[in-house]
Amino acid sequence: MNAPVSPPVQTFDATGATPVMQQFFEMKTRQPDALLFFRMGDFYELFFDDAIRAAAALGISQTFRGTHAGQPIPMAGVPHHAAEAYLSKLIRMGFKVAVCEQMEDPAEAKKRGSKSVVRRDIVRVVTPGTLTEDGLLDARGANRLAAVAIRAGQAAVAAVELSTGEVECFSTGKDGVGPLLAALSPSETLVADRLLADDHLAQTLKICGGLIQPMPSALSEPQASETRVKRLYGVDTLDGFGGLAPAEVGALGLIAAHLEMTQAGKLPALRAPRRAAEADVMSIDPATRSSLEIDRTQNGDRNGSLLAAIDRTVTPGGARLLASRLARPLLDPTAIDQRLDAVEWFVEHRGLRERLREQLKGSGDMARALARLALGRGGPRDLACLRDGLKTGEKLAGMVGGSGDPLSPPPVELEGALAALTPSLHEGVSQLLNTLEAGLGPDLPALARDGGFVAPGIRPELDQARALRDDSRRVVAALEQRLIQEAGISLKIRHNGVLGYFVEATAGKADPLFQPPLNATFIHRQTLANQVRFTTVELADLDARIAQAAERALAMEVAAFEDWRAEACALAEPIQAAAEALARLDVASSLAEWAEDAGAVRPTVDKSLAFEAKAARHPVVEAAVRRAGDPYTPNDCRLDAAGEVAARLSIVTGPNMAGKSTFLRQNALLAILAQSGCYVPAKNFRLGVVDRLFSRVGAGDDLARGRSTFMMEMVETAAILTQATPRSLVILDEIGRGTATYDGLAIAWACAESLHDTNRCRALFATHYHELATLEERMAHVSNLSLRAKEWNGDLVFLHEAADGPADRSYGVQVAKLAGVPPQVVARAKEVLDRLESKTESPAKLDDLPLFAASAPVAAAPVVSAPSAVDGALKELDVDGMSPREALEALYRLKGLLKT
Q1: Which residues, other chains included, contact 406 with Cβ-Cβ below 8 Å and sequence gap of 6+?
Q2: Which of 35, 562, 660, 815 could be stapled to 766 by a disulfide with Cβ–Cβ 3.0 to 4.6 Å?
Q3: What are the protein's UniProt keywords (predicted)?
Q4: Is 684 annotated as a binding residue?
Q5: Across the chain, what does the average pLDDT equal?
């Protein structure tokens, strides 16, 4: 997502402006590149270019109000109560919105003078990565703000989920930025503006970085960044976060600067940065993620993805954690086994699992509720969410901890979660839970200022104020009856916002009230066409006491809310740990639920180079086939990068529609599931850890960059051939199909050779070039697989069965017939095919082509002197990003290299 093209920043001359417009100009100057939501009563108003742009984007009316500098002022507005929906639409379109609120009641402003302007201030700047409101967020999806920094050739990616307080930091090389951002899938990415001059990095950010937000390069300088990060966390040193590299500090500094600007000084409840190296998770580049449809289909839908197929979670936090695990599969077999142990335990304890999942449904989303409370945007319902979540956690800890099976205690993954969910282990959390259980009433408003959320009996003075406020109707009715008896005429006691309580009589009956002795009791206030209004000393006193009681009751409730909010924020760390524990329980139990539904088994993940799948299925395709009432044909696949127990490279042939692409994707998804800690849909599965997963399946172009489908295919293939290691898994489909036959065959052949001889990785290579089948005889670790199909009574039947050996033919004409190609065209194609196949000699025999004969030695390249150590060191210098001290140290280092 990229922001809409912004017009040149407007400059305003406030000369002659009204006080309100002067206030608007002041706020707009502070946020010139944001749409300013300027609160005026019940509306957020937009003026000048903001109004024109917002009206066009939202489809609302744009009018004019008053003039400035002799020109009418464009204006548009949205109701305050419906602002969230409009904000959501603007943010999705890439706008930034500054929210300017009224900071005092208009009545308070009038006390300073009749022409005084209500105080206003910008309370937040809304950007895609800083959303916290439920109505603006996908409850089951993360909303991350990321930042990229590069120092001295080393890159770092930091990410914060503001709505939950989770912070992560990754150290990587420049080439690792793309896969990391693709895994994080941020809504907004901050980057120093000087880095955007790097075309490769700029394109990487464009592909997977959400809204790109350029930041002044000075904000990523280590010293300034360190100061901001300390201020963000309220610490004196960053040593407690481990030895953060300069690039990591720079990335975190960009996030700290952005939060200071957008949150108007409010500090979010953030966890300490969770650091990880590039080598901790499987690397999956953006193209591979797209083709495998891990969390989104290529059309952008969640339905049809791997995540949607296996997601049985019942809490928002669990759904987000599952998505995060699938996005970043682990590389450590021990950590993977700990996750699998938790799933297996729930598979074995079905009854307990069902009861636990039922309890989890009422736990709410504690992480996001806490974040809103910390930022001052929460309300009583968020406190109730903490209460319900902590109470659920307490029940689950007792339920799972007391499962009564001494022979099968909860595994390590679950034991840690249960400890975090036991309030008695943390005195402060236990006290907060007791306070909220006793203090919150049954019917809670969204905002504290609406009142009515503190339970009776908690604060005696509050109960007294409420009694006076709530008994006002009875007291007023009694006074009305007494005044009627004293006056001897019909009258009513009414109330409005201007006069407060008053006595009202019709004009025809009011005369006695002006005469003695009644005029001593009834004081005239207002005469209308048909009514006359009076007050009495007793009524005025009652009016004041009722108004004061209501205000006092609300003030006491707001004070109680602030006390509880502060108590919750002070306990942010254990509450966040409890929220994460609930999510872990949800993920483990939901994966067990899915495993039982899908007939999935526990995989074996080790340090070998093997890939052994027995009777495996594609989880997404199988679910769709089941819904249609059809059976799914499972398939085996065996690979071994060492070439000891199976081939390193399998050439997969077969007709279109036979299932080659499904077979390829199926095996890649098995690796993702296994290393994410999930069961896999197979009879048996063993996997040697995959460090990088590459997929080149499907066709696509990049017209904006002038790249054809074939060019994109070659770019992605080049990335695979230059980055795949012996521990990688590569799936390739139809390499070389986008060019002339012999060119395509030559490219496919050379790529297969490189994967086998140079990369030496596990690879599945689907092709229609049947000539590649001869590689099995020419290379030591190549095998042939084919997806079978049979002709029956002139029709083609797909068996979807992978078998050893190459396909006998492509059946292209039969597939064309199935696709609905006109019969005369199909008949003509068959005629041409028969004539071509009947020729005794092909125009060019494979064995006659020099390309496919024994590889000839490559001509020696011209001798070029190797670059010196100084040349290499110079290329690594990040001149623009160096501090003066770093530059001086670099000069001394270069001088030392010259001497050697």
Answers
A1: none
A2: 660
A3: ATP-binding, DNA damage, DNA repair, DNA-binding, Nucleotide-binding
A4: no
A5: 86
